[in-house]
User: Fold this.
Amino acid sequence: MKRALEHLRGITPEECERLRGLRVHNTNELLHVGSLRIDRDRLSRKSGISEPRLLALVKQCGLLEISGIDLYSDALWRLGVVSAADLKRAEPAELHAGVVRVVGPARAPTRQMVEYWVSQARCIDIVEVIEDPRPSLPAHIG
Assistant:
């Protein structure tokens, strides 16, 4: 979903200005130019925003790609769901119960909506995250 950069939690006005100077005007554009680590590295060099910081912002953009989740992003953040990868690992019933606790029963999404979010997250893999660039060695070699 295309949103203004200011919609991202914690983004500073300076970061928005730097990104806009590089023709990145919304969350969709940031997701597309920052999904791959090599592209985030390039964007980091040009913008002066660190790659880990860009990764955190791009992860938020990826989460916004989940249909219907936008209204509940603050509640999900409070529950520790800050990326599509976090959502992918969530148990729908537990997540639904957590959202109900955070926003109250009257404002909560239906359980089916939460199940749909999780199913969408399990079908997409937008953001490349490389934990450790070195290949792990078999135990007998180490």
Observations:
- The two ends are 45 Å apart (CA to CA).
- Confidence is low (pLDDT under 50) at residues 134-142.
